[in-house]
Write a structure and sequence with these properties.
38% helix; globular
Length: 123
């Protein structure tokens, strides 16, 4: 957070263990780049597409984009009803297209998150 700024534009949350497990397997340089990108997402009202891009035909999923040490790293996420960004999975991108299995996994985690949140609001 910026000194003197008590309020971020949005909050970043993690759901499940996918992203945190992936991040722990990354090099220190890549971890730092992910952390800086997450900070930018929290602080900037307009996040550059180079850092956060909405995926087409993926039911509201976004891709956090980090380039480090010649590799493309990605985290899949979505916005919840409170305008919070929920990060669910991370991986190293090895081709032009986002792997379909990663999208399927992220959509499953999104539905699970929404069900848990709905149950918590009803209790």
């Amino acid at each position: 957070m910026i000194p003197g700024n008590n309020r971020s534009v949005r909050k970043v949350l993690f759901f499940g263990e996918g992203f945190e497990t992936y991040l722990s397997s990354c090099s220190e340089k890549t971890k730092k780049k992910f952390i800086m990108t997450l900070w930018l997402i929290e602080e900037l009202s307009q996040v550059p597409v180079a850092k956060l891009k909405k995926l087409t035909n993926a039911n509201g999923l976004y891709e956090i984009r980090v380039k480090s040490e010649g590799n493309e790293h990605r985290a899949l996420c979505f916005f919840n009803s409170d305008n919070e960004l929920v990060v669910v999975t991370g991986f190293q991108k090895k081709s032009q297209k986002t792997p379909r299995q990663q999208i399927i996994n992220a959509l499953y985690l999104k539905r699970t998150y929404e069900n848990v949140k709905k149950q918590n609001n009803n209790s």
